[in-house]
Amino acid sequence: MEPTSILAIYILFWVMAAFIVLPIGIRSHYESGKTMVDGQADGAPVNFRPLRVLLLTTLLATAAFGLFYLNYAYGWLTLDDIDFFNSRERMS
After folding, report:
1. Percent of the chain topping pLDDT 70
2. Do 33 and 68 meet the contact criterion of CB atoms below 8 Å apart?
3. DSSP secondary structure letter of residue 1
4. Domain boundaries, the chain
């Protein structure tokens, strides 16, 4: 696999992991019992910690990409393993 492909796939894993990690541990003003500032959005988080999100996102993306790359290198799970409807045979 080319280094640019590795980087592009890792970035995709990182963005996907960011969307998974972002809502974890976030509390709104209603949940924490704090008063809102005039004009503030109802869903604005009280305790957003961007460094924690970046760290957890990077850890999750690295673990997921590691499994992906190991599967690519060793072929643990191939396309034939997940072709439940024999679509590859029907296409030829």
Report:
1. 100
2. no
3. -
4. 3-91
**What pLDDT is attached to residue 89?**
79
CA 65 → CA 41, 56, 75, distances in Å? 35, 14, 15
- CA distances (Å), 24 to each of 44, 53, 67, in order? 14, 9, 23
> How many whole angstroms separate alpha carbon 62 and alpha carbon 74?
18
Instruction: Return the pLDDT at 90.
Output: 78
Of residues 20, 29, 21, the one with CA closest to residue 47: 29
pTM above 0.90, yes or no: no
DSSP, residue by residue, 59-80: HHHHHHHHHHHHHHHH-SS-TT
Structure tokens at 17: 């992991």
